Amino acid sequence: MRKASPALLGIDISPSSVKVVELEPGQKAAMRLRRYAIEPIARGAIVDGNVEQPEQIAESLARALRRMGTRTRDAALALPTSAVITKRITLPAGLGEEDYEIQVESEASQYIPFAIEEVNLDFQILGPTAGSEDDVDVLLAASRKEKVEDRVAVAEMCGLKPVVMDVDSYAARKVLDQIARGLPNGGQGEVLALFDIGSLVTTVTMVLNGQTVFEREQAFGGMQLTQDLVRLYGLMPEEAEARKKSGDLPENYALDALQPFIEHGVAEISRALQFFFTSTPYTRVDRICLAGGACVVPGLAEAIAERTGVATAILNPFGGMEVDSTVRDKQLRQEAPALLTACGLAMRRFDA
Q1: Residues 108 and 200 both lie in one domain
Q2: What is the pTM of this model?
Q3: Which of 338, 341, 343, 294 minimizes the C-alpha distance to 321?
Q4: Using alpha carbons only, how large is the chain's radius of gyration in Å?
């Protein structure tokens, strides 16, 4: 009988909030959402992916942990994609772990614009190189040490033990891969487009047969709608965010703020698709998956489907999972798309 994996918290620290997810083995499904929490963080605590106010972030994380009532201490965190340099390299097959480490460090020095001693390096063997039995493809990842240490420090302030440091786009991909398995033929042969619409940035990921074939970030997010509410109605940013969630908005909100935001979002996603088509050999996408807190804006998914002619759906990271009875159904439906990265991090518990 396989021993249960240790409990693990998936923690996503974004410019607007801290999101925490805890999964456990299910009875009828492989995984079960045990509990989760989302807590806002102070404006300016994260700037351009950098931790500027660790104490403020730690306060938000501590509130989230108290709300959850969890005793789990092991945590998986993620760096923003922009803070990580990745490179696919080819190395000889059959080397030992130490030999791969030496080879990776040697290769990394060619691609990293700062001293090796200033970075954290990691690698993953992807599999045999196409057309060569003697080589393997290896994914190299490097980030400045302070980027890692800043996030580790926030977790440790809350009494947590960081055991995994991932990349947010990789964590999101983990969820997408799980969802793809439930598609006809496991999604094989389909180009899946994931648009993770955060508060400031939309991360675009194109996946074919389990491989990322395109990735980029665009400056579009839910904060634009918040700023429009502040500008149009004289609200404070915190009040504007609260009203967006509660629906307590002026009568002319749909015309003055919502419709322009949707049009901007549709234009950004159409532009990303065109860039994908013109900069890669691919000429189509088969499905568009939306995630991130801003994707639940009423009418956005429908407008994207209409403009692009591609089947578009809001992604639920917990699709196919069991959900604990203490989790509020209606609230989860609204908040699930924002938990994509945190869910992917929590899923690291189930890695073989």
Answers
A1: no
A2: 0.90
A3: 343
A4: 21
Residues 44 and 56 reside in one and the same domain: yes
Tell me, yes or no, whether 190 and 287 share the same domain: yes
Q: Are residues 340 and 269 in the same domain?
A: yes
> What is the pLDDT, as a whole number, of residue 352?
61
Contacts of 232 (CB under 8 A, 6+ apart): 256, 257
**272 and 323 housed in the same domain:** yes
What distance in Å separates the CA atoms of residue 7 and residue 24, rounded to the nearest whole number? 7
Taking the C-alpha atoms of residue 341 and residue 173, their distance in angstroms, rounded to an integer, is 9
What is the overall mean pLDDT for the chain? 91
Q: Within a 10 A sphere around the Cβ of 6, how many other Cβ atoms?
A: 10
What string of DSSP letters covers 88-115? EEEEETT--HHHHHHHHHHHHTTT-SS-
CA distances from residue 336 to 35, 156, 187, 218 in whole angstroms, order as listed: 12, 26, 22, 22
Cα 9 vs. chain centroid, distance in angstroms? 15
CB 182 within 8 A of CB 189: no
Summarised one tens digit per residue, pLDDT across range 235-281 is: 888 888 888 877 888 889 999 999 999 999 999 999 999 999 999 99
Q: Answer yes or no: are the C-beta atoms of 187 and 282 closer than 8 Å.
A: no
120 near 88, Cβ under 8 Å?
A: no
Choose among 118, 125, 169: nearest CA to 142: 118
For residue 128, what are the domain limits? Answer: 83-145
AA identity, residue 271: R
Give yes or no: residues 152 and 121 share one domain.
no
In contact, 179 and 319? CB cutoff 8 Å: yes
